[in-house]
């Protein structure tokens, strides 16, 4: 009987705790939404598609107007079969170029010391790395933007978020 009483008390405690926690979380979310200015933001279904969003016009179930639509499976197919391999290939290129330039740096430093060339020549591979990083960064930015355009995101916010993810993936590797 005492075990049954403990289970009942424990169950009541869990119900009370979960309710208070949930209400506290709702309040915290509302405070953050107010502070961040997103309290009155519209639903994704009611927001206008971005101007470059392409697709056949269909009647919207929410607004009743004709709006461009694009199947999610096509977007996912392009994302996983084209974007992902291209990004992986770009990462591989960046790692290979960085590795080769670091190897060049060690070989170059040994040659400079052996042949007694001026000290400032040790900076040549470092300058080369800086130039290659800038070139690869600009090329990858164009590739990432093209991939994002082809993925055909409906909202500008989603477009920007996926572009940021693509850029951060490779650009952080370039900085390393």
Automatic annotation (TrEMBL):
Transmembrane segments: 6-22, 77-102, 117-136
Alphabetized UniProt keyword annotations: Membrane, Transmembrane, Transmembrane helix
Alphabetized InterPro entries for the sequence: Anoctamin, Anoctamin_TM
Recorded topology in the membrane: Multi-pass membrane protein
Main localization of the protein described in the UniProt heading: membrane
Pfam families: Anoctamin
Compartments, as annotated in UniProt: Membrane
Anoctamin transmembrane domain boundaries: 6-169
Coiled coil: none
PANTHER family (UniProt xref): ANOCTAMIN (PTHR12308), ANOCTAMIN-8 (PTHR12308:SF51)
Protein's name according to its UniProt entry: Anoctamin
Species: Limulus polyphemus
Gene name linked to the record: LOC111083568
């Amino acid at each position: 009987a005492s075990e049954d009483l403990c289970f009942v008390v424990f169950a009541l405690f869990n119900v009370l705790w979960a309710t208070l926690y949930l209400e506290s979380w709702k309040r915290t979310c509302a405070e953050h939404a107010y502070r961040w200015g997103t309290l009155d933001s519209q639903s994704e279904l009611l927001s206008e598609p971005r101007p470059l969003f392409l697709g056949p016009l269909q009647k919207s179930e929410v607004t009743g107007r004709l709006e461009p639509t694009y199947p999610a499976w096509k977007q996912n197919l392009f994302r996983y079969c084209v974007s992902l391999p291209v990004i992986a290939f770009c990462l591989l290129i960046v790692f290979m170029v960085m590795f080769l330039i670091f190897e060049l740096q060690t070989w170059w430093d040994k040659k400079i010391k052996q042949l007694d060339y001026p000290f400032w020549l040790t900076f040549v591979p470092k300058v080369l790395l800086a130039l290659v990083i800038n070139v690869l960064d600009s090329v990858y930015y164009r590739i990432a933007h093209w991939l994002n355009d082809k993925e055909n995101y409906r909202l500008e916010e989603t477009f920007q978020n996926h572009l940021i993810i693509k850029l951060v993936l490779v650009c952080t590797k370039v900085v390393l």
